[in-house]
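Figure 2 data, in text form.
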Amino acid sequence: MADSTRHMVQLEKAMEQYEKLIFSICYRMLGDYFDSQDMTQETFLTYYKVLDRFDGQNEKAFLTKIATNKCLDFLKSKRRKEMPTEDDILESNVGTVSSLEESFLEKEINEELSNACRTLKPPYDEVAYEFYCCDKTAKEISKNRGVKLKTIQTQILRAKKMLQKKLEKRHE
């Protein structure tokens, strides 16, 4: 199978599996539905472009990082357009401010997800925390806990639905 065909199949699988997650990350960071759709597309476009350099390990974390960076770049460019160009002092501090803002946003998102995971009832709390916050795979969690892989996958799926409801309620 040619690289481009293989990459296209890999992209389609990634989109099927992670499109909702990536969109929710973008929407959480940007707060605008249409910008979030654009950044979701940008994320998968970038993913496709770098597939030959991607080692195949932890695809979810890789895509999440691309989405976060795309949104942060988008927010930076949006701020630059709104910033007066005559003010040299502000322009000279853009790098410092945005890197602080980036780390604050990333930390805030991670804390919110971590807190939401911990509010779930057992065993979903620990499984969700390990999966979403510690970037462990279902296989790793299964092995560490001595529980069947299918059981962990079901718990992750149920935890995801519970988290979606919790996070949607917080942002209404």
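Caption note: The longest helix spans residues 88-118.
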